[in-house]
Every structure is written in structure tokens, then in C-alpha cells.
Backbone:
């Protein structure tokens, strides 16, 4: 478990980091918190010529509101985001999802941008990004562009960045104060990658009917996905457990991952239904609490 | 995760001697250095010119090695040597092996690979990085052979052969019958049967196995190693290396855990030694986690059972019939000793007399088995308790009641079980009562009903008991064979106590004792009890093989009992010398002297006394003060042999006494199961153990907690999984799920003490018991929680998918 030889670059500024990525393109991998990349390097599953370590790039470590969005720099440690009270108010789903990411030791090291760029279908932050229609900001020497989360995650550990592009920030639309949020997942052990996960944000009217609902589901296919059919089925319906459970059932059809040692596909279909049901129910309950208070 | 301790109950009529140190709840003496990072592990050792080895592991389960092109690796700067099975064939003998001689093994595969992860070639280089570069540059051509992965299919006549020389994939087969099982089952009011599979798991020490070998002076090869029970087995390593045993010096190095897995882990030191011999330089081979998971020979039992048990109408067990196929993997390093273990307590704590035990050891394209906490007895316990549980259900008896009815009673000891092993002592009703006193079972039974009705939650109770055999004797490894090659009967342990000229104590141990068993705490506690000095003041060190007296090391929960015997024996000899010196100096009869709190004093006149430093000074510097004819110095050694071993009968109708020091335990768990996710969690857990006289409640409690945590891993999480093609799916901790503090409940621990009549101080072994009960308790509790869905655990680990699918099947069937 020792990595092969590589060139190590340690830029201080975003400009330097972007220049290095432009220079080395496919030959370079970006080291952020290293929670996925370091094991891959050590097991020689990744063998980059160049490693661009962005841990020293302070330009990437901001959190703040910009134009109705919460912008989080790619280099922000997950534990910093988890403890950020303004972020928790602006986008409650993030606060709900953060404790599920590995263990606190992982979150002390892992970064927001690292998790987003790694594009693991079982990871929590990509699932929240899809749920909330977040935008991923990427930069190269050619300039900056914004990519919708649903376009950014393309498949198994694959994102929409060009070889010269670096993820610099993620922008979440600020959640309506009357919306409820919930994140539910099941993993065999605390801190493991989820076998199925769901994020939900919903608003309900005075009659207890859904006026808006967004559902993202992780770990059922090669990327996090929106459960749009369920969202449509729920809109205007009463937020009762029977209604939610009935609508959630169709997520089973979206499960494409085949059986593995931790989950048969039949089990994963049931589990996906379970986590979607529970997340939507909890989000609706949260919305009702917010309306009441 | 925390553990709480209930105060100890003493069961032998209140006559337990008043010990000052034994039984006191003291901190471990090993911990200060370990907690500040001064353990001194093998990977921390620095050595001039040290080379590092990395291994190319087979990507295929079964193949002939057609060719290995080493030129690319050899061309890399820093690569010193590349070795293959051809080098082994030319320069060494097969490794030590307690299985059939027709199944031989080398540390590097010779001619064929037989499982994914087997060593194909070794690169030795100036760093581990370069060694791994070398591995990537090797080119190997394999001729693939059919993979044999199903142990039942392996025994079919058309199965591909793993070992041509052996002639079949049936590594071994034997049926023992004691009593008349056919009649016992025919006459039974109820016969329950089950098909059960205990999946592979393994001890996962934080530190993997590792060794450094260095060509030393005078042609001696020095091996520094954290694995292998070296004082018992060193001569076999020397034999494999083709060097005289006095030219191989093995030095034990602190080990970061073993749980049995390092007991006979011989390939790592053998390989490091071979590499040092071939290169003439010091070589380090320390497994990384991939090496360890795939190839450390510590995979444990993987057994498929057809089992039956008979009951009378009032719930008395009439007999047990076991037919087991054990998936041993590609080699049989221990023979079938793990089933000898099962036979040591085959009838559990119960009184029935009729037993049949049929074993077939299957060879498959998987890593071979090694030792793990329980050594195969824990599997049998699970089978036994699964059947008892089923019998109780069918007879309408509470789980505690059926056990109570069948228990061997306290006045029946020593008790000879079918097969011949003897249980030395016990009080099983008291252990059960103690456990029931620590948890309100009736409250939880009401809660289970209420929570189901009011909150839709699923709660289950599990109760299980177990025997915890301890202090193995080696006959269990060979009584399977009618004409064993080496019918060994020894399993001794030694200690040397030295009082230095200043009166300070040195204690030398003679095995690789540092496998997480608190060896220094235990041995210094016994020494303290004998001499009245503080345990923490004693310095402990470990002999290498050039000095070691007979030793067998920690295995089969033997070390505490055996080292206590050795230390006490050496203490008696040394105390006699101290008293003889004092008698001479004080001019009194030795019979009038006693050793109290570190001073030798006249009985009834303690003011006439001499301290140990005074006596030590005489022993070292004032020969003219010694009694005439006494040798100078203060050092005594003692080798303690197994306290109770008898030979198996020639026809094996009686297997003899081989595991007589019998502990006992009862666990009760309250679990909650989520039928929609399969999540299992604990609402309460009580564990009561009887390990005879408790030397240290803290270290014994640690054993119970750790063992139970590992049992929990085997029950719900851990799985060394091979797919049907023979690919290994558990090569990292991403997939091999060791339970963490989040999954392990706080165990509430109680101790009962029924001293052994055969051991010093009445101590019994207690290192494995936790893992011997937890699987039975978890299985029973999960079944109980989901009884309305017909949940019936037949396979470990219980996967969440199995739980959810069982529930869904039941729901589908109702519709």
C-alpha cells in the first residue's frame, strides 16, 4: 500500500492551482482532504503523474451568501461546514446530511469540493446538491463556468469537469424558511457509505398538502438522482404516511445497481423506498413545525 | 462503548483464600508504555541496510503458473532481488504443517496458485515503495484452472483437484459416535433439525503480522517477529529453512493484537527469514492490510451443518447429531484441530449422553483457515444453542427454563462428557441466576408486546449459555488420526524469576505472550501475591529462542492459568532459597520463618526479619554468609506442565481429557430490529462469566467486552466473502465490516467464581468466552423480534438484506 512515484505540487493561490491543472490536465489529480484519493493512491488504483495539493489555497475556504445562494468554497472542511450556523439556517438540508459523512475524523479532513468532485453516488453532499439544484462552479485558465448539479454528476465517479478545470465552489439556493428538510440513509455501520440515502425538502400548506417537494436519492444508481416522478405524484397531495409511502414505492424502479455483498438489488429497492418515505415524511413534519412556529 | 462490572460472587462456601493482589481491580501494567506510543512494534524497528519486501498476490483463484518474467522488476533501481516458488523449491523445505503430508505449502506458491491473494512472487528492494514498483513490473502467465468454491461441490467426484498428490478435495473425514445416537433420536418425543452456515470471519488486530530477519554473527539468523508461537514451533521453521535450530534465533516483538490469528502465523517469519538468507541482508516483511485480509492464514471457521437434536416431552435433551462440512480453503495447516476444540465441549453445559459428530474437511480455492478466538468451539456452541432454542420454542418452554432443566448440576463435577473430556467444576444455575438478576427479563417481555402494539417497534430477547473450555492440551490436534505422525502430549509454560543484587525483581517469560492477553499484568500479579511486592515494580522481559525454556504461548485461553502455574512454581523455589539464607543469617530454623510483604521474618516475632534487598546482597556479594554448599545468585525457573491431560484410547472410543478447565457464561440481550432496513441495535446486554478465580476483574472484563464485540462482528457484520468465481470481495475495511464503538453496546458484565480444583489459585481461562456466546444470543434475539414473520437465523453474519427479504416474503405470502 505505497503509491507510485508522482510529482507533488503545492500551490499557494487559486491562480497557481488553476495554471497547474491547465498545464497537466489528465495527468494531474487534485488532492484536497484525501479521504478517497489517498487510499486510491496507496492501493495504486490511481497513478497520477502530478498531484496538485490545494490544501494551502486559502482562496477556496470561504462560506457566505451571494445573490440568494449559499456559496461554499471547495476547500472548506466538512467539519467547518457542519459547525457553520449560518449555513445551517440558509440550507438546513446540509446540516441534516453532514453527520452522515463518514466519521468526524473524516470530516475534519474531507472537503466539500473534494466530495463533490469525487462524484460518488453514495456520498451525501452530491445527493444534497442534486436535491437542491445546487450549482457547481469550476474554473480553468479559459475562465469560470457554472454547472447544474444534475448535469455535473455524470456516472460512476465521473463529473462534468474538463481536464483543465478545477472545482472552486458550490452554490446552494437558500432554502425557504417555511420549507422542511430531512436527510435519511442506511449504512451497515455508522459512517459507512450508504446503501441507500435520500434528501428531501418540502413545503406544505395550511391543509397539510405538499406545495413543493424536492427529493434526491443516493446509492441506487451510478450517480445521485432526483426522484421527479415521486415529487410530481406528491404535489398537491396530503402529506400523510400512506400517501408518501405509496408514492415512494416507485423509486424501486430507479434502482440499477446490481446485487453486491452488502445489498441484494431486491433489498436495495425496498431500502430506497424506505429512506425516501422516511425522508419525505420527516421533511413534511419539519415543514409543519416551521409553519406552526 | 463502555463496560460496567458487577461485584464478584464467590461460590465455594466462602472459603476462598484472602488474596492481596489476585482479584484486585488494578490497572494493567502494560498500558503506560502502550498509551504513550512506546510499544516497540516490528514496523518501528530501524536497522542498518534494512530491505523491504512486497508480494505479488494471485489475481486468480486457481491456475498453473506458466511463467514469471522478472526482468522488468529487476531492472528497477533499488530492486535487490525477485524470488518465486522456484527459489523455494530449490532452497527450502515445505512449511510446517499439521495436516496431511500430501497437502504441502511454501510461503511462495510453487507451480500453482490456489486462491486469490496467494503469494506468486516477492520483490525485495531498498524501500517498500520501490518493492511495490517492482511488483507492478512483473509479468506472469497463468494457465487458468476451474475454481472450486462451493465446499459441497468440491467433494463431488468431478471437481477440479486442488492438490493432485492428495487425490481428492476431501482433506479429511471422520465420524465419532459416543453412545447410541440413533436410539436417542428414535426414542425422542421431539427431534428438531436445522441447516446452518457459519460464515468466515477473522480476528482483525490493529497490527498485521510482520517480521524482520537479519543474518547475524556466528551464522545465526535473527528473526524479530510479532507472530508465531515461537518457543513451541521454532524448530519447524528452522526445518523449513534447512538450517540447524540453534542457528535460528527468534525474538518476540510486541504485537498489536492477535485474537488467535498470530498463534501459528508462520509464513510471515518464514518468508522474511528465507529472503534474508537469499539476499544476505536484513529484510523486513510487514503485511499491509490487503496482505493481511487476503493471505494471513487467519480466516476462521466456515462451516455448513446438518444438525439434529432430540428432546423428551419435558424438554430434556436426548442427543445431538452433527454432520458438518468445513470449508477449510486451500491448505490444512492445523489439520482439523478446530473440531477437536468443538468436541471438548460438544454437549455444552447439558447432561445428555448420546452424540454423533461427522466431519468432512473440504479443500477449496480460498485462503486457508487459521486460529480465531474460540478456535471452532464457538461455532459448535452456536449450533447447539440454535437447536436448544428451537426445541424450547416447539415445547413451549422459556429459553432460560429449558437450559435450567438440562444443566449439569454443581455436585456432578468433575463431569466426564461423551467423548471423554472432563469438565473440572462449574455452577451453571448460579451463572444463569446471576444473569437473570441483572436484567428484568419479564419487564422486557412486556415492553416487547407494548412497543409492538403502540409504536410498531420490534424488540427481541436472546438468552444463551455456553461452555468456555480453557487450557488446551495438544492431543486435540491428533486424536483424529488413528496413526498420528507426532502424537504430542506436552503444552508447558515457563517462567524465570530473578532477584537482582539490589533486591529488585526481573521476570522472564518464555513465549510470544504479547497477544493482547495482559500477560505482564497477570504474571506480575501472581509474583506480587507470592512475594508481597507491588506488581508495577517487577520488570518483565521475553526470552528469545536461544534462551527460552519450554513454552506454548497464549492460545486456547491457556496463558493466565499456565503462567500463573509457572510463576508460582518458580516463586516457591526462590522463596525457599530466600528463607534458607535468612535462616542461616538469623540462626533460626527455616521452618520458623515466613515471607510477608517482601520480608522474611520469624513466625510470631516479626521484628526479627530480613528484607529481600538484604538477602539479595548476601546471595550476590557475601558468599561466606550463605549456608554451606548454596550457590550464589537468586534466580529460579519453573516449567509448569498441563495440569490434567490423559491419552486418548487406541480405538478412540474415548478421546481422553484434553480441555478440562471449563468456564461457563450466560448472555442476555435485548435487541431492536428495523424490518424495513434490517438495522439491528441493542437496548441492553448482560454478560455473566465464570472463569474460576479472577486474577484481575479489569483485564477479564476487557476480554469479555472484546470477545463479545468480536462475536457481534461475526454475527452481524464481518464476512470474508468469496464469490462463486472465487474472487475475494473483502480485501479492504470498506467491505470487511469490523463493528466500531457505534455498533457495540455497553456490555454489563458480571463474574461468578467457581475455582478449578486443578489449577494454581483455581484460575480458569477467560480469553475467548465473549465470542463464544454472542452469536447465539444475537440469533435468538433477532428471531424473537421478528417471530411474527417467521424469522429464523440460519446463517452468519445476519445481513440486513436477509432480514428485510424474510419480512417481505412473509408479507407477500399473507397477501
Residues:
Amino acid at each position: 500500500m505505497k503509491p507510485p512515484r508522482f510529482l507533488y505540487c503545492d500551490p499557494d493561490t487559486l491562480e497557481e492551482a488553476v495554471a497547474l491543472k491547465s498545464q497537466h490536465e489528465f495527468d494531474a489529480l487534485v488532492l484536497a482532504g484525501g479521504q478517497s484519493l489517498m487510499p486510491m493512491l496507496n492501493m495504486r488504483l490511481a497513478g497520477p503523474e502530478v498531484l496538485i495539493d490545494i490544501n494551502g489555497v486559502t482562496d477556496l475556504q470561504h462560506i457566505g451568501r451571494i445573490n440568494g445562494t449559499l456559496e461554499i468554497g471547495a476547500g472548506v472542511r466538512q467539519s467547518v461546514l457542519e459547525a457553520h450556523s449560518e449555513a445551517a439556517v440558509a440550507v438546513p438540508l446540509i446540516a441534516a446530511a453532514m453527520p452522515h459523512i463518514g466519521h468526524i475524523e473524516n470530516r475534519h479532513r474531507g472537503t466539500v469540493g473534494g466530495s463533490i468532485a469525487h462524484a460518488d453516488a453514495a456520498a451525501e453532499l452530491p445527493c444534497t446538491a442534486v436535491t437542491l439544484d445546487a450549482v457547481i462552479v469550476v474554473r480553468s485558465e479559459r475562465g469560470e463556468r457554472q454547472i447544474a448539479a444534475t448535469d455535473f454528476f455524470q456516472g460512476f465517479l465521473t463529473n462534468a469537469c474538463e481536464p483543465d478545470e478545477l472545482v472552486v465552489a458550490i452554490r446552494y439556493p437558500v432554502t425557504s424558511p417555511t420549507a422542511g428538510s430531512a436527510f435519511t440513509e442506511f449504512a451497515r455501520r455508522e459512517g459507512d457509505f450508504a446503501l441507500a440515502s435520500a434528501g428531501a425538502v418540502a413545503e406544505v400548506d395550511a391543509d397539510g398538502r405538499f406545495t413543493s417537494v424536492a427529493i434526491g436519492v443516493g446509492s441506487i444508481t451510478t450517480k445521485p438522482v432526483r426522484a421527479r416522478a415521486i415529487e410530481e405524484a406528491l404535489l398537491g397531495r396530503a402529506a400523510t404516511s400512506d400517501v408518501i409511502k405509496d408514492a415512494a414505492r416507485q423509486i424501486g424502479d430507479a434502482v440499477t445497481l446490481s446485487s453486491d455483498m452488502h445489498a441484494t438489488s431486491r433489498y436495495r429497492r425496498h431500502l430506497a423506498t424506505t429512506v425516501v418515505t422516511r425522508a419525505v415524511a420527516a421533511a413534511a413534519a419539519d415543514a409543519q413545525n416551521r409553519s406552526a412556529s | 462503548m463502555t463496560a460496567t462490572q458487577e461485584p464478584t460472587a464467590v461460590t465455594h462456601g466462602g472459603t476462598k483464600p484472602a488474596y492481596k493482589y489476585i482479584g484486585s481491580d488494578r490497572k494493567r501494567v502494560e498500558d503506560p508504555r502502550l498509551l504513550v506510543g512506546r510499544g516497540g512494534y516490528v514496523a518501528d524497528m530501524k536497522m542498518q541496510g534494512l530491505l523491504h519486501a512486497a508480494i505479488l498476490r494471485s489475481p486468480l483463484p486457481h491456475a498453473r503458473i506458466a511463467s514469471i518474467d522478472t526482468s522488468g522488476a529487476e531492472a528497477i533501481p533499488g530492486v535487490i532481488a525477485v524470488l518465486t516458488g522456484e527459489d523455494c523449491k530449490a532452497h527450502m523445505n515445505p512449511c510446517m504443517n499439521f495436516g496431511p503430508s500430501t497437502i504441502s505449502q511454501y510461503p511462495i506458491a510453487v507451480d500453482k496458485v490456489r486462491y486469490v491473494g496467494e503469494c506468486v512472487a516477492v520483490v525485495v528492494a531498498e524501500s517498500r515503495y520501490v518493492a511495490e514498483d517492482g511488483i507492478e513490473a512483473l509479468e506472469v502467465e497463468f494457465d487458468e484452472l476451474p475454481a472450486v468454491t462451493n465446499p459441497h461441490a468440491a467433494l463431488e467426484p468431478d471437481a477440479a483437484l486442488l492438490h493432485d498428490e492428495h487425490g481428492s478435495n476431501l482433506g479429511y473425514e471422520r465420524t465419532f459416535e459416543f453412545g447410541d445416537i440413533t436410539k436417542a433420536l428414535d426414542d425422542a418425543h421431539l427431534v428438531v433439525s436445522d441447516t446452518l452456515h457459519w460464515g468466515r470471519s477473522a480476528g482483525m488486530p490493529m497490527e498485521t503480522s510482520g517480521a524482520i530477519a537479519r543474518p547475524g554473527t556466528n551464522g545465526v539468523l535473527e528473526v524479530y517477529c510479532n507472530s508465531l508461537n515461537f518457543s513451541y514451533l521454532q524448530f519447524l521453521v528452522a526445518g523449513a529453512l534447512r538450517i540447524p535450530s540453534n542457528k535460528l534465533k527468534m525474538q518476540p516483538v510486541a504485537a498489536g493484537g492477535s485474537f488467535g490469528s498470530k498463534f501459528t502465523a508462520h509464513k510471515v517469519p518464514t518468508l522474511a527469514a528465507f529472503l534474508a538468507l537469499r539476499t544476505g541482508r536484513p529484510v523486513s516483511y510487514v503485511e499491509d492490510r490487503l496482505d493481511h485480509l487476503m493471505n494471513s492464514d487467519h480466516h476462521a471457521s466456515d462451516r455448513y451443518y446438518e444438525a439434529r437434536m432430540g428432546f423428551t416431552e419435558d424438554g430434556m435433551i436426548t442427543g445431538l447429531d452433527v454432520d458438518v462440512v468445513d470449508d477449510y480453503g486451500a491448505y490444512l495447516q492445523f489439520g482439523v484441530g478446530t473440531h477437536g476444540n468443538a468436541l471438548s465441549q460438544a454437549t455444552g453445559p447439558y447432561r445428555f449422553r448420546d452424540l454423533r459428530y461427522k466431519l468432512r474437511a473440504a479443500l477449496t480455492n480460498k485462503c486457508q483457515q487459521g486460529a480465531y478466538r474460540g478456535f471452532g468451539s464457538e461455532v459448535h456452541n452456536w449450533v447447539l444453542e440454535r437447536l436448544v432454542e428451537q426445541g424450547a420454542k416447539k415445547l413451549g418452554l422459556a429459553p432460560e427454563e429449558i437450559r435450567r432443566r438440562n444443566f449439569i448440576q454443581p455436585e456432578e463435577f468433575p463431569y466426564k462428557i461423551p467423548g471423554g473430556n472432563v469438565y473440572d467444576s462449574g455452577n451453571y444455575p448460579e451463572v444463569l441466576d446471576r444473569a437473570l438478576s441483572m436484567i428484568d427479563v419479564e419487564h422486557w417481555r412486556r415492553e416487547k408486546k407494548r412497543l409492538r402494539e403502540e409504536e410498531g417497534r420490534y424488540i427481541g430477547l436472546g438468552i444463551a449459555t455456553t461452555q468456555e473450555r480453557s487450557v488446551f492440551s495438544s492431543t486435540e490436534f491428533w486424536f483424529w488420526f488413528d496413526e498420528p505422525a507426532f502424537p504430542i502430549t506436552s503444552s508447558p509454560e515457563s517462567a524465570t524469576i530473578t532477584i537482582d543484587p539490589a533486591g529488585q525483581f526481573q521476570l522472564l517469560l518464555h513465549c510470544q505472550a504479547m497477544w493482547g492477553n495482559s500477560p505482564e499484568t497477570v504474571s506480575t500479579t501472581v509474583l506480587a501475591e507470592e512475594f508481597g511486592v507491588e506488581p508495577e515494580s517487577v520488570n518483565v522481559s521475553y526470552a528469545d529462542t536461544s534462551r527460552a525454556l519450554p513454552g506454548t504461548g497464549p492460545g486456547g485461553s491457556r496463558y493466565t492459568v499456565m503462567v500463573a502455574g509457572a510463576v508460582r512454581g518458580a516463586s516457591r523455589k526462590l522463596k525457599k532459597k530466600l528463607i534458607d539464607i535468612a535462616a542461616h543469617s538469623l540462626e533460626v530454623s527455616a521452618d520458623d520463618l515466613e515471607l510477608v510483604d517482601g520480608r522474611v521474618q520469624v513466625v510470631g516475632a516479626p521484628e526479627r526479619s530480613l528484607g529481600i534487598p538484604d538477602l539479595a546482597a548476601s546471595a550476590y556479594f557475601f558468599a561466606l554468609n550463605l549456608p554451606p554448599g548454596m550457590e550464589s545468585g537468586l534466580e529460579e525457573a519453573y516449567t509448569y506442565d498441563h495440569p490434567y491431560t490423559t491419552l486418548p484410547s487406541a480405538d478412540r472410543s474415548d478421546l481422553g481429557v484434553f480441555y478440562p478447565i471449563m468456564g461457563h457464561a450466560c448472555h442476555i440481550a435485548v435487541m431492536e430490529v428495523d424490518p424495513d432496513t434490517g438495522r439491528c441495535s441493542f437496548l441492553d446486554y448482560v454478560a455473566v462469566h465464570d472463569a474460576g478465580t479472577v486474577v484481575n476483574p479489569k483485564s477479564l472484563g476487557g476480554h469479555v467486552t472484546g470477545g463479545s464485540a468480536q462475536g457481534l462482528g461475526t454475527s452481524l457484520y464481518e464476512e470474508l466473502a468469496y464469490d462463486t468465481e472465487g474472487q475475494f470481495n473483502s480485501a479492504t475495511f470498506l467491505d470487511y465490516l469490523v463493528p466500531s464503538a457505534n455498533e457495540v453496546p455497553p456490555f454489563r458484565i458480571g463474574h461468578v467464581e467457581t475455582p478449578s480444583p486443578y489449577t494454581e489459585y483455581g484460575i480458569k481461562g477467560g480469553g475467548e468466552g465473549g465470542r463464544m456466546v454472542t452469536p447465539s444470543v444475537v440469533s435468538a434475539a433477532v428471531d424473537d423480534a421478528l417471530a411474527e414473520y417467521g424469522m429464523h437465523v440460519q446463517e452468519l453474519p445476519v445481513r440486513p438484506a436477509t432480514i428485510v427479504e424474510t419480512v417481505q416474503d412473509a408479507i407477500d405470502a399473507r397477501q
User: Anything to note?
Assistant: Residues 1-14 of chain B have pLDDT under 50 and may be disordered. Residues 31-39+492-640 of chain B form a domain with the Aldehyde Oxidoreductase; domain 4 fold (CATH 3.30.365.10).
